[in-house]
Amino acid sequence: MNNKTSALAARALTLGAQNAGRFYRLGWVSLQSDESISVGLVDSALVLRDFEAKKFVWSAFNRMTTEFLAPHDPSASRRVYSPHLTFHPPEWLHLTEQKGSASKRVPFEAIAPIELAVRQQGIVPWVRFTSKPLSKITPTPVNGKRETIEIQADLQMSVRISVDFVPPGDSTVDPDLGHSEWFDHGDYRVRVALSETPAQAAALGWIHQN
């Protein structure tokens, strides 16, 4: 561990939505002291079975963006509990689920050289989590010790959480992503965005090999 990385301060960001003065906690971003970055969804989510236990090298030659939406046939998917994606620099990425305090599972992992990808293509889309409709989520008090990123949302709508890697100093606004905020963490800069989307079952997507 180099001196720059060891000096990083950890940050915890709470992602949520406001409606009529009530706060609906949807997910979180953890910027860790070892330069790792995690993004999690509070709720369980659907993931396609075809991508369980995938291991591969994700590089300039075999990467593409895929977005998982709620499938028309739920039997083709399985549910992951409290899913979170973590990038461990310089190039390790994995999806973890936690079902109960002692039960963890890694259905997806890959080698992913993010620094190289950012240099080659600029903005690198990473995570797309979608909540279930706010009407099906119990409002919670805001934790005053955490930074909060939030939007105003209709109770009948779901909320899309988008997290992308962007070049140093980049503050490009993508209107399709809704409200955006940017965070520098070690050698990496991420854009975190929240937007309303039509109601659907909780789902997740991430960069992966087709």
Describe the 3D structure:
The protein has two helices and 15 strands. Mean pLDDT is 81; it is low at 1-5 and 64-72. It has one domain (3-202). It is mostly beta strands and 210 residues long. Strand 8 and strand 9 form a beta hairpin.
Counted up, domains total: 1
What order do the strands of the largest sheet run in, or round the barrel if closed?
A: 9-8-7-3-2-1-11
Q: Which stretches are poorly predicted, pLDDT < 50 over at least 5 residues?
A: 1-5, 64-72
Write down how many β-strands occur, each being a DSSP E stretch of 2 or more residues: 15
The largest sheet, given as strand count, sense and whether it forms a barrel, is:
7 strands, mixed
**Structural class category:** mainly beta
Count of helical stretches: 2
Radius of gyration: 17 Å
Q: How much helix is in the residues? A: under 10%
Beta fraction of the residues? over 45%
Describe the SSE topology.
Blueprint: H1 3-6, E1 11-19, E2 22-31, E3 37-41, E4 45-48, E5 64-66, E6 77-80, E7 84-88, E8 92-98, E9 104-111, H2 114-121, E10 124-130, E11 147-152, E12 158-166, E13 179-185, E14 188-197, E15 203-208
Parallel strand pairs: 1-11
Antiparallel strand pairs: 1-2, 2-3, 3-7, 4-6, 5-15, 7-8, 8-9, 10-12, 10-15, 12-14, 13-14
Keywords for this structure?
seven-stranded mixed beta sheet; single chain; disordered N terminus; mainly beta; 210 residues; 2 helices
Give a short summary of the structure.
This protein has 210 residues and is mainly beta. Helix content is 6%, strand content 48%.
